[in-house]
Write a structure and sequence with these properties.
Elements lengths: L3 H16 L9 E6 L4 E4 L15 E4 L4 E3 L8 H10 L5 E4 L3 H9 L8 H6 L12 H5 L2 H12 L10 E4 L3 E6 L2 H24 L8 H9 L16
Antiparallel strand pairs: 1-2, 1-5, 2-3, 3-4, 5-7, 6-7
Amino acid sequence: MLLPDLREQVLQANLELVRQGLVLFTFGNASGISREQGLVVIKPSGVSYDSMTPAHMVITDLKGRIVEGDLRPSSDLPTHLVLYNEFPAIGGVAHTHSEYATSWAQARRPIPCFGTTHADYFHGSVPVTDVMKDSEISSDYELNTGHAIVRTFQKIDYSAVPAVLVANHGPFCWGPDAGAAAHNAAILEAVARMANFTLRINEEAEAVGRALHDKHYLRKHGVNAYYGQAKEKK
């Protein structure tokens, strides 16, 4: 069986989406990539999370050709592949229909950074894609969803804002591996929920100032980060 460790990582990322209450039934999907081998591991389409094992994971190449697996891969595979091809620093992707993040996507509104919880993970607002054209939907829909995401990040650092809202659809998140992508999906849902409450309490609430936003993001990310424990040198 190819890529046993990555299969297990991707399975656990998918199960984490369930544990965090981000998916219903067979909704949602997570994947991971082996950059060395140019292979992607993704959950199968429409299979219950309760019954999934590492052996159920489907392995494809970066063109979507099945390399190993007897089941059909997630229908969102083409979107994942676009992201892997266009965002070379990512190692995992997660897609959900979580309630609050999806509500922002349906409203076609980016999620502003109202406070430090958001700033810890996203160095800017979480953007929303443009509405897809009918022609993009009727032909190669999932592939074009990926292209819509990439267009949204033409002037945004995808590493600093590892999430997007696809208009009228839902969120996609990514990270250095599948587990990190699932983690970012959970954080995105939390900040989407808090942003919703913030605007209900004060509809004129303003985004956090740049100094505080930068402080909270940069103390956790980048060469001068100091949050947490230092990694041991090998």
